[in-house]
Design goal:
The protein has 83 residues and is an alpha+beta fold. It is built from 2 helices and 4 strands; from the N terminus they run βαββαβ. The chain is elongated and about 40 Å long.
Length: 83
């Protein structure tokens, strides 16, 4: 199965959604290369970057599920398919 490297950028504005977000990331852990989270206390948000190497449909599914969480916003950037 072909995989693509992607970066999912996430901004969390609702702290009540953090447990659900972490559960989703746990469910997709086999595809996650690494993640970095930054709490930004001045604006009361959390900024998270998740690097994945997965089939495109898995990355799209994860990103879509993340985006449906209350107060959680995500965008995905894909690397060139030749990588």
């Amino acid at each position: 199965m072909d995989t693509r490297i992607a970066l999912i950028s996430i901004i969390v504005t609702n702290a009540d959604s953090v447990d659900s977000l972490n559960a989703l990331l746990h469910d997709y852990r086999e595809y996650i290369i690494g993640r970095m989270g930054l709490p930004y206390h001045k604006k009361d948000v959390n900024i998270i970057s998740v690097a994945v190497d997965a089939p495109q449909e898995k990355t799209s599914a994860l990103s879509g599920k993340i985006g449906r969480l209350d107060g959680v916003f995500s965008k995905t950037v894909y690397a060139d398919s030749r990588i």
